Amino acid sequence: MRLRIGIVLSGNKPRQSLPYRPQEIGRTGQPHHELIRQRRYTMNIRSIAGIIMMAAIIWSPAAGAQGNADRGRQLGYTCLGCHGIEGYRNAYPSYRVPRLSGQNREYMQTALRAYRDGARPHPTMQAQAGSLTDADIDDLLAWLDTTATVQDQATAEQVASLDAAAVCVTCHGADGEGVAPKPPTLAGQHAEYLEHALHQYKNGTRSGNVMVAFAATLSDAEIKIISDFYADMDGLKTLEN
Ligand code: HEC
Ligand code: HEC
């Protein structure tokens, strides 16, 4: 199941035409029953992908206003106390505070609203976001947007030997351009934080989003391998003070 979804979603690239038109059957030299099997398989995985994409669109947050970066910088002064210190740790459980420099705006808007509304757990971030209005959040995002935007560049080739990650790169990878809601960038994020987030999706403490289904399929060992894989890539940075 996991792999099947991966195969289709990575078909965002120009899809090679399928070898089931009669005139092509002779050329590919494959037995007829084999071609029919491929065709059924492809239709099957396409419809699964369709369901996922539909679900993803339903979850997509309302587009925000542009915001005022100067006001955001002032509001964001306190954020730097944690997100602006390289390697700063969350006390309990112990993991590194996520990097935000280069993270995409749409995802950070979802995250801040979720903390504010109590849908995403974390006492400190809930307290930080608790008093923010939508306009405050847009101002903060306008400021954060002045840091470079980066993208996950992981490709299907890179994860060829890493089955568990095949489905991930279809959204969190070069092929994930245009997926809605826009997934967070993972490249360059602290491995400890990625692990923490995946365990939260898996154990249901961070729920109500597409990741719950994907994390459920991962073993602890796979979570560790995938987290290290993304953390090793160039990408997100700690905010500059
Ligand atoms: C006391 C330290 C601290 C302060 C201050 C703080 N944060 Fe955080 N922030 C964290 C931690 C720890 C997390 C990860 C929480 C979790 O596990 O969900 C986090 C998560 C986030 C995330 C989600 C990142 C992701 O990849 O999912 C965003 C966005 C964010 N913070 C923005 C802000 C903004 C904006 C401010 C200032 C208004 C701020 N934070 C202030 C510690 C802090
Ligand atoms: C259908 C697209 C899609 C697929 C496939 C997908 N993700 Fe995600 N991922 C998302 C979205 C959307 C979010 C944001 C969810 C939220 O708001 O908490 C996310 C969030 C995450 C986060 C949290 C990052 C942060 O900053 O807090 C991690 C880690 C993650 N995904 C890893 C993975 C891994 C590993 C896989 C493969 C097993 C995977 N994802 C497959 C769309 C996807």
Query: In what range is the share of β-strand residues?
Result: under 5%
Distance between the termini: 45 Å
The biggest sheet amounts to:
2 strands, antiparallel
Mean pLDDT: 80
Low-confidence stretches: 1-51, 54-64
Instruction: Give the names of the bound compounds.
Output: heme C
CATH H-level superfamily of the largest domain = Cytochrome c-like domain
Helix/strand-derived category reads mainly alpha
Name of the CATH architecture of the largest domain: Orthogonal Bundle
Q: Gyration radius, to the nearest Å?
A: 20 Å
CATH topology of the largest domain: Cytochrome Bc1 Complex, Chain D, domain 2
Q: SSE layout and pairings?
A:
Layout: H1 2-9, H2 22-28, H3 32-58, H4 69-75, H5 80-83, E1 89-90, E2 95-96, H6 105-116, H7 123-130, H8 134-144, H9 168-171, H10 191-203, H11 211-216, H12 220-231
Antiparallel strand pairs: 1-2
Helix pairs in contact: 1-3, 4-8, 6-7, 6-8, 10-12
Bound molecules: heme C (2 copies).
Question: Can you characterise this structure?
Answer:
The protein has 12 helices and 2 strands, in the order H-H-H-H-H-E-E-H-H-H-H-H-H-H. The chain folds into 2 domains: 2-58; 69-231, Cytochrome Bc1 Complex, Chain D, domain 2, CATH 1.10.760.10. It has a two-stranded antiparallel sheet. Residues 1-51 and 54-64 have low confidence and may be disordered. It is globular and about 45 Å long. It has helices at residues 2-9, 22-28, 32-58, 69-75, 80-83, 105-116, 123-130, 134-144, 168-171, 191-203, 211-216, 220-231; strands spanning 89-90, 95-96. With 241 residues, the chain is mainly α. Helix 10 (191-203) runs antiparallel to helix 12 (220-231).
